[in-house]
Amino acid sequence: MAHRFMDPAPLAELLAARAEGLDRPFTVALDGRSAAGKTTLAAVLADILGAAVIEGDDFYAGGTEVRSERPADLVAACIDWPQQRAVLEALRAGEQAAWHAFDWDVFDGRSCAALTVLAPKPIVILEGVYSARPELSDLIDLAVFVRADEGVREARLIAREGQIGPWERQWHAAEDYYFEFVRPLTSFDALIDV
User: Which domain holds residue 77?
Assistant: First the structure.
């Protein structure tokens, strides 16, 4: 791992330096466990850098029921990465990207009726668990692991989701698998503790 940060400002400086002079957007994946602070960090970086942000949760595809598959299969099914890939490719080509986000409010498997539209900017941030997955690696310029203290992360999860039940636990097991076997900490370009 080349870079370790404790504060967003030096990470923002690194991103700005890496993006300078490119004739296409510089794409950053902010990956990490649920409730690690990826969305908040993405918003801070977007504010500092004027970056475009793609919310990984918009591409949730894992369904609303408790599933019985192995964690490896859940990792493969959780996010519609082909759609994420299409969005990244459009932005990389200097084109506007559009998609229908998963509707977390109704939580019945539907996507939102409204279209999410994003214009390309010099820096594009894809934030969310699985954002640094190997299937997107050729479109990601810098993969950042976002880490929070376990106690803080668990408190955030409970505040956000209420009781942690079987549905949540299946996805936590999938994350365990992903960060152990697919994208271990040592495979990231940078780490930030938030």
Answer: 3-193
